[in-house]
UniProtKB/TrEMBL annotation:
Domain Hydroxymethylglutaryl-coenzyme A synthase N-terminal: 2-172
Descriptive protein name: Hydroxymethylglutaryl-CoA synthase
InterPro entries xref list: HMG_CoA_synt_C_dom, HMG_CoA_synth_N, HMG_CoA_synthase_euk, Thiolase-like
Enzyme Commission code(s) on record: 2.3.3.10
Top enzyme category: transferase
Known catalytic reactions: acetoacetyl-CoA + acetyl-CoA + H2O = (3S)-3-hydroxy-3-methylglutaryl-CoA + CoA + H(+)
Keywords, comma-separated and alphabetical: Lipid biosynthesis, Lipid metabolism, Steroid biosynthesis, Steroid metabolism, Sterol biosynthesis, Sterol metabolism, Transferase
Record: residues binding CoA: 208, 255
Length: 446
């Protein structure tokens, strides 16, 4: 089997969003804190009419119909999410209703849970299945995303929502580089959800940023090791045309690309283009190098032109929809395909981070020559720019009211119908109709 990777990709994001500069005023924080300080434009959210199952169903059905994929051609279905509505039943099982009604019940795969990294694990499993002796010739489907909500306060503007679906197979458009992966995992408590009675995480914001950047450093070194055993060239950011990051908020993505440039400098400190960084050589991966505004200033300036060219095209969806946790980095890939026309043979580096923590740096090459769908087709079919423009902007008061409804609804028990109306659910979208006396959730399409 040749050229295994992503053959098609699309995203479902909700109809409603709140504007970040309006949210700044409502939250009485200084002008620019969310829009410049965090780098975010808008944020997607849902009330209690949508949950992770309804969003995943919408995302899968949209992919299958837009690309006219036969339901029987799927042999593996993996879900990556941290939006938990059942301690036992996987979202994958709920998605089976779409397949069983069309006669396909022979589908491997269940859910993977680890903060924002579940989708990456689901993707890796699917790639490895196709490479293995267990593969039966069919496609895999990876469904990944979340509803990210935080309690009131500093973290709330870094929420978001969206579910990405990817069709994985041979002769792909986005072909993953075999063997080239750098992984770093450790046990930390930067972000976790120990209290199942509330939807919100326990989060140590500053620690999570430090963990994210440290994981990036470690993955850089691991990837570099593998890169340099398989090629004769030296590894640096010059080896790639584009870089996609997991994006909790855009400013962290800017800092992360700058951090990769800092890593390039540490590998090659005598290169004259890095001379402004020489005073920062000794701190390298020390604690004070992760939150250091002087170092940030220099690396951000040094990397700015490259950032605009190599990273910015992949940031559209995360700036507009916010953090979709497991979906975030893959919405970055889709943004890239929607923003750049001539991608053939381009090399893309990808950084996936999930708190707790699990992180990987991996890469792909774009193959428009003998793939079924070209990157331009995928960009056109996903139509994200027009869909983003057609959303409904709600006021921060309404956003706050709806999150209060979600919170209340989450704490209710027993048979119930959701509190929210169907006003914000767009036509063709699955929604939660009711929860019956056995606590089984029932869905309908609007
Ligand atoms: N104009 C321009 N910039 C501003 C303004 C302003 N008016 N006000 C503040 N800023 C800047 C700050 O200087 C800061 O920049 P810096 O990061 O370069 O220092 C930035 O905006 C953020 O301001 P802080 O005061 O540091 O923000 P705060 O502590 O209130 O919250 C945080 C930010 C920690 C990211 C919070 O939103 C959070 O906890 N989010 C959830 C955790 C998260 O997303 N972690 C990332 C990795 S893990 C994951 O994916 C979930």
């Amino acid at each position: 089997v040749k050229d295994i990777g992503i053959c098609a990709i699309d995203i479902y994001f909700p109809q409603t969003y709140v504007n970040q500069s309006e949210l700044e005023k409502y939250d009485k924080v200084s002008n620019g804190k969310y829009t410049i300080g965090l780098g975010q434009n808008n944020m997607s959210f849902v009330g209690d009419r949508e949950d992770i199952v309804s969003m995943a169903m919408t995302s899968v059905q949209m992919m299958m119909s837009k690309y006219s994929i036969d339901y029987s051609s799927i042999g593996r279905l993996e879900v990556g999410t941290e939006t938990i509505i059942d301690k036992s039943k996987s979202v994958k099982s709920s998605l089976m209703s779409l397949f069983q009604e069309r006669g396909n019940t022979s589908i491997e795969g269940v859910d993977t849970l680890n903060a924002c990294y579940g989708g990456t694990n689901a993707l890796f499993n699917s790639l490895q299945w196709i490479e293995s002796s267990y593969w039966d010739g069919r496609y895999a489907l990876v469904v990944t995303g979340d509803i990210a909500v935080y309690s009131k306060g500093a973290a709330r503007p870094t929420g978001g929502a969206g579910v990405v679906t990817m069709l994985i197979g041979p002769n792909a458009t986005l072909v993953f580089d075999q063997f080239l992966r750098g992984t770093h995992m450790e046990n930390v408590h930067d972000f976790y959800k120990p209290d199942l009675s509330i939807e919100y995480p326990y989060v140590d914001g500053k620690l999570s940023i430090e963990c994210y950047l440290r994981a990036l450093d470690k993955c850089y070194l691991e990837y570099k090791k593998r890169f340099e055993t398989t090629t004769t060239s030296t590894f640096s950011m010059e080896s790639f045309d584009y870089v996609c990051f997991h994006s909790p908020y855009n400013r962290l993505v800017q800092k992360s690309y700058a951090r990769l440039i800092y890593n390039d400098f540490l590998q090659n400190p005598n290169n004259p283009k890095y001379q402004d960084l020489l005073p920062f050589k000794h701190i390298s991966t020390g604690k004070d190098s992760y939150i250091n505004s002087k170092l940030d200033q220099i690396t951000l300036k040094l990397s700015l032109d490259d950032f605009k060219r190599k990273v910015n095209p992949s940031t559209l969806l995360s700036k507009e929809c916010g953090n979709s946790y497991c979906g975030s980095v893959y919405s970055g890939i889709l943004s890239l395909l929607s923003n750049v026309n001539d991608l053939n043979n381009k090399k893309v580096l990808i950084f996936s981070y999930g708190s707790g923590l699990a992180a990987s740096l991996f890469s792909l090459r774009i193959n428009n020559s003998n793939s079924l769908f070209k990157t331009n087709d995928i960009g056109r079919i996903s139509n994200i720019k027009e869909r983003l423009l057609n959303r409904v902007k709600t006021s921060p008061e309404e956003f706050s009211r709806i999150l209060d409804i979600r919170e209340k609804s989450h704490q209710m028990s027993g048979a119930r119908t959701p509190i929210d109306t169907l006003d914000y659910v767009s036509p063709g979208t699955f929604y939660l109709d009711k929860i019956d006396d056995k606590l089984i959730r029932h869905y309908k399409i609007k």
